[in-house]
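Title: [Solved] phosphoenolpyruvate--glycerone phosphotransferase 3D structure

Original question kept below for reference.
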Amino acid sequence: MTKIGIVLASHVPELARGVYQLLKQSASDVPITYAGGTDDDKIGSSFDKINDAITSNPADELFAFYDLGSAKMTLEMAIEMSDKRIKLFDAAFVEGAYTAASLAQGSSSKDAIEEQVAALKIK
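Solution (posted by the thread starter after getting help):
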């Protein structure tokens, strides 16, 4: 079975770290990496931080979550440059990532996780 990992991208370093900590409470075996803020830890997004979060995550396949539009655009650029299989979700940041991580911890299939997270899509 393919191991699913989670990548988080937020504009705020503390938010990225906080969501990471929340997810690890119920998904301790799931590889989760995060990127928050700009290169100098201000509010914004950093290609290098997001790329490092993707690269350093040891999972076979990654599910990526973001908080705002420019984090999404930066994730999209990093995904295009990566050799990893990465699915970017347009879902509520905390709820989507938490749902995916919890289901991955419970060994749910990739399809089952995607179906549950789809219900949290931001329209």
